[in-house]
């Protein structure tokens, strides 16, 4: 196999064709490495709850055979571990499905305001359970985008859930949706999920959307996280030709913002013409 680093491949004196070829090989090796890392990580993430399950089964069959109270306690933990494995498998499958369709842009018309209302309803119980006030500020009457409704719900559910789980504070969590102008004059929808929690240190920000990357592993596990949430969010936003940005300040909080081009709205005159014909 050819073993050249990017620097070596850029050495002077090599013809352009060779340089391009070497650069492609370096890129390919990097992709292969990433794939191998991903499989290793996924196996490790599945093996941890599996090992714990096996341990409890042995204990129930052995030392705790006649201890009903202990057995009941262990069964609760085992059910939680089984749920964790199934969440992980669901997330892995979602990720691979989205990746497979990455180049196909969803084409139904979806109103982001409706999507957000649905997300707020779905997460109201979690917010209530944590005693965190969850607010939605609708600064636009409608935000029509071209998209996949279920995937967009997934994006904002993930972001709001993270805000509640990792950024919850007595100041609550705000979701703000608005319309804004782009530099080229076109219009876009901007949805910001804002928390006033501990924030994320700057060195973590660039890696946050990597699969299995967590700032605080025990905390993520304790919250039932799989470490795939933000990777899924980023993939869905990319598929929708949108942009995800993260701003955070230690001790102040975090803002996750999603921007997506607004779907063309028919001019009033065309609507009237159509309804009359
Ligand atoms: P997980 O399944 O662990 O929640 P995610 O991909 O959704 O995985 O998030 C990755 C990590 O980013 C989390 O484990 C957490 O450490 C950090 N994180 C995400 N959102 C926030 C937030 N609003 N405030 C602080 N940390 C966050």
Walk me through what this model shows.
The protein is an alpha+beta fold and 277 residues long. It contains eight helices and seven strands. The chain has helices at 6-9, 16-61, 68-100, 112-130, 149-166, 217-222, 229-239, 268-276; strands at 108-111, 134-138, 144-147, 173-181, 187-195, 243-249, 253-261. The protein has a five-stranded mixed β-sheet with strand order 2-4-5-7-6, with helices on one face. Strands 1-3 form a two-stranded antiparallel sheet. A hairpin with a 5-residue loop joins strand 4 (173-181) and strand 5 (187-195). The protein binds adenosine-5'-diphosphate. Residues 158, 162-163, 166-167, 195, 197, 200, 208, 214-216, 220, 225-230, 254 line the site of adenosine-5'-diphosphate (ADP). This is histidine kinase. It is found in: Cell membrane.
Summarize the structure.
With 277 residues, this protein is α+β, with helices and mostly antiparallel strands.
Task: Summarize this structure as a short list of keywords or feature phrases.
alpha+beta, 7 strands, single chain, disordered C terminus, binds adenosine-5'-diphosphate, 53% helix
**Shape by Cα distribution:** globular
Low-confidence stretches: 270-277
Strand order of the largest sheet: 2-4-5-7-6
**What structural class do you assign from the helix and strand content?**
alpha+beta
Helix content: 40-55%
Number of strands: 7
Q: What is the strand content?
A: 15-25%
Chain-averaged pLDDT = 89
What is the string of helix and strand elements?
HHHEHEEHEEHHEEH
Keywords: ATP-binding, Cell membrane, Kinase, Membrane, Nucleotide-binding, Phosphoprotein, Transferase, Transmembrane, Transmembrane helix, Two-component regulatory system
GO biological process, one term: cellular response to phosphate starvation
Subcellular location: Cell membrane
GO molecular function, one term: ATP binding
């Amino acid at each position: 196999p050819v073993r050249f680093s990017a620097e070596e491949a850029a050495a002077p004196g090599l013809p352009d064709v060779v340089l391009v070829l070497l650069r492609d090989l370096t890129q390919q090796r990097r992709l292969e490495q990433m794939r191998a890392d991903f499989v290793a990580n996924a196996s490790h993430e599945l093996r941890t709850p599996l090992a714990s399950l096996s341990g409890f089964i042995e204990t129930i069959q052995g030392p705790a055979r006649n201890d009903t109270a202990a057995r009941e306690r262990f069964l609760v933990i085992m059910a939680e571990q089984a749920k964790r494995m199934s969440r992980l498998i669901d997330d892995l499958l979602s990720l691979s499905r989205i990746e497979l369709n990455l180049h196909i842009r969803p084409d139904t018309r979806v109103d982001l305001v409706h999507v957000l209302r649905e997300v707020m309803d779905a997460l109201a119980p979690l917010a209530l359970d944590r005693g965190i006030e969850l607010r939605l500020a609708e600064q636009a009457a409608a935000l029509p985008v071209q998209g996949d409704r279920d995937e967009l719900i997934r994006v904002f559910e993930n972001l709001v859930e993270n805000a509640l789980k990792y950024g919850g504070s007595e100041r609550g969590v705000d979701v703000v949706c608005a319309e804004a102008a782009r530099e080229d004059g076109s219009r876009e929808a901007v949805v910001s999920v804002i928390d006033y929690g501990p924030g994320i240190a700057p060195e973590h920000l660039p890696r946050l959307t990597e699969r299995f990357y967590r700032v605080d592993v025990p905390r993520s596990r304790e919250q039932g996280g799989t470490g795939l949430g933000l990777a899924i969010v980023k993939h869905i936003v990319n598929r929708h030709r949108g942009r995800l940005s993260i701003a955070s300040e230690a001790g102040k909080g975090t803002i996750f913002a999603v921007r997506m081009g607004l779907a063309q709205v028919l001019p009033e005159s065309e609507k009237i013409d159509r309804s009359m014909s």
